[in-house]
Amino acid sequence: MKKQKPHLSCSGIRTFLDCNKKYQYQYLDKINIPKDHSMKYLSFGKSIHKTLAKFNKIRDQSQRNIDTLHDLLRKNWIREGYTSIEEERSFGLKGLDMLTKYYENPKDQGKKILLIEEMLSIDLKEYILDGVLDKVYITHDNNLEIIDYKTGNNMYPLDNLQLPIYLFLSKEKLGVYPNLVSYYFLSHNKKYTREVTKELINNLSMDIHNLCTSIIKTKDFHHNSTPYCKSNCQYYQLCSILNFKCNHSFNINTKLKN
């Protein structure tokens, strides 16, 4: 039987950099232990993403109004993970407020939308790279821009891990690299944009390929023990049972160039 190529994604690579052993449990051994405390945030994020995807597909301008946008959130609301009706209502109101800010002053408007929330894969010989592009469009000044909607409260710059994945996927689907890649922080209705240059493409392409190659060739998956394992990792009890003592830490800044 022909061996299947490994699939890598931004979340999977981040997991590997955070803890090799966690990557092994989650992506290779397929041990599914949900993180109860984070489920509500995943549900909230998916609800907002689905809502914006459907709203951005509406071509009839008479239907592109705030009532339609709010109704789409109600129809696409995911209820999993909330600990009470009060908590769910609080997140729901937060979502409506977030979408209102977006509607009143959108930062992602242009001449033509090319892609909306599309799952893409690219075969890179030794592995397959997967990712989702939330929105790709032509701006009013003729730039090709990729948008990644963020629903959390924290704002941060686009890092050198997610950026090359966007570049690969755009080139595979559209035949060209984007001119701009942006994080759109919906809670603040602010956008952080990074310009894409040929030098950036060349450097990051090599970096991400080397990192992905090192992941698929890893045989010994080390356990990275930190003070936050117990509260943040769903595999904490499993590691405790197996009595792992290793403390090999990986992080993105040592694996990818700034």
Write the layout of secondary structure elements.
Layout: E1 7-8, H1 10-18, H2 20-28, H3 39-56, H4 66-75, H5 85-104, E2 112-123, E3 128-138, E4 144-150, H6 162-174, E5 180-185, E6 190-195, H7 198-216, H8 229-232, H9 236-242, H10 252-255
Parallel strand pairs: 1-3, 4-5
Antiparallel strand pairs: 2-3, 3-4, 5-6
Helix pairs in contact: 1-2, 3-4, 4-5, 6-7
Helix tally? Answer: 10
* Beta-strand proportion: 15-25%
Note the overall shape.
Answer: globular
Residue stretches low in confidence (pLDDT < 50, at least 5 long) are: 245-255
State the end-to-end CA separation.
41 Å
Report the mean per-residue pLDDT as an integer.
Answer: 89
Structural class of the secondary elements? alpha/beta
> What profile does the largest beta sheet have?
6 strands, mixed
Q: Sketch the topology as an H/E string, one letter per element.
A: EHHHHHEEEHEEHHHH
Helix content: 40-55%
Rg on CA atoms, Å: 20 Å
Kindly state the number of beta strands.
6
Question: Which key features would you list for this structure?
Answer:
about 260 residues; alpha/beta; 10 helices; single chain
Task: Write a brief caption for the model.
The chain has 258 residues and is of the alpha/beta class.
